[in-house]
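Example record

Each entry pairs one chain with its bound ligand, NDP.
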Amino acid sequence: MAGMATRTSSSVVPSAENGVNSWGLGDGQAVPWEYAPAPEARDIVTLKERYGLFINGREVPATGGETFTSVDPATEQPLATVAKATSADIDKAVRAARKAQRRSWGQLAGKERAKYLFRIARILQERSREFAVLESMDSGKPIKESRDVDVPLAASHFWYYAGWADKLDYAFPGRVAKPLGVAAQIIPWNFPLLMLSWKIAPALAAGNTVVLKPASTTPLSALLFADVCLQADLPPGTVNIVPGPGTIGMDLVTHPGVDKVAFTGSTEIGRKIYQGVAGTDKGLTLELGGKAANIVFDDAPLDQAVEGIVNGIYFNQGEVCCAGSRLLVQESIAPALIDKLKDRLATIRVGDPLDKNTDVGAINSKQQLEKITELVQSGVDEGAELYQPACDLPERGYFFRPTLFTNVAQSHRIAREEIFGPVLSVLTFRTPDEAIEKANNTPYGLSAGVWTDKGSRILDMVSKLKAGVVWANTFNRFDPTSPFGGYKESGFGREGGMHGLHAYVRLEDR
Ligand code: NDP
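Structure tokens for the complex follow.
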């Protein structure tokens, strides 16, 4: 695609009989080795010019008629106009959800709820390419990630929780699991459809109804999901989707008709939401920021570790709450590992999110790009050593080079603050105790990674790391059966698995 980055490397052609090979090059001459553009077709997605709110099973305009625009971060072009919900709309959505909880969805037997959830899972799979393309257009993430990670995982959350809907007695033996009622759910922009599925699937499985507010920069996959709800014939009011600014997010959180609040996003907003529910009996789960340590010991398989490090921080442009943004390397292998990492960085392709070759797509918004740029500058100013591979960035759009900082001190902002971008800070350690001390030296506690050949060391580290999820010899692996969540300023409560179901039920004695 014109204007998008292509990376050039070369390989030496084997000798040919007459000195000229099939590329028409002489002995020993390098083949110019470029990736041909492989853009995914956009026409699977039919973008509407205007999207309404989804309340009580119908698409409706916002009260007052205000709208906002969702922009493609890779081109800076507007994608669609979206209705901007007001407090009055939040009230309508909560009332619709309450009615459905009392009269339709909440009255269904578990096996009937399961049928709907299975249907939604199947429709997501059938429409997976449409969802993947739309998600990449609206968020900037590479199509190979939305196609191979976000959408399949979103569908699998519905499959998984569909299985629990009629088995709540087995999930909570000896207790009676009752739905909480109406769930208010607020999701971020880094995994829009996936976060929607993490929130909606367990809530519906347990018999709750929901009002979901997507992030303002990525409302479109949630609005396409509204279409899936219609296609699945979900009772009106079971799922309501209300795009709009953060202020209406707070209206939703504080609405007296809400029984449970689930939030994923920044620690700063998480704190406000905590205050918003204080003094009420609303259930609350907060999945907030992170500054994960990815720890590599000297006995680790280095090439595998390099792949894990790259996946840990450059996956989804580093816009991942559990990203392995602090690399802790044992001192003796640090030079070798950093060399390998730099070589690997030179092969990462940054560019058009819809190109199937792209590894790192566009940063989600101009505001986020500015935040990343400012924090990277602080790293330079504070004395860390910056490395960025030479690569062309597209002329338009919000792109940022994969970045590696060495010579990082624990006091540097790039070692303490969540950057939420493709920026890795490398620190070193000598002993396992020092690794633990450095890894836990953060207000966050969401995830961590350990790379070592020794199982006993993995078990020892896992027991000492203050993180909700610890990956061993891998990173950024997600599964609907496995709980996910944090400690400290990364929030509380778990999503996924039976723990995720627990957050949406009230357990009573038999
Ligand atoms: P926010 O936490 O502001 O956004 C997350 C969601 O909360 C969005 O739907 C947002 O709506 C909504 N929201 C915003 N303000 C309020 C409020 N007062 N009450 C209720 N809901 C609200 O994240 P940002 O998009 O501003 O990103 C800022 C930083 O947060 C990032 O740089 C990153 O470091 C971190 N972040 C962490 C995430 C994680 O998963 N841990 C996810 C996203 C960001 P709206 O979009 O309309 O503002």
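The CA atoms of residues 124 and 155 lie 6 Å apart.
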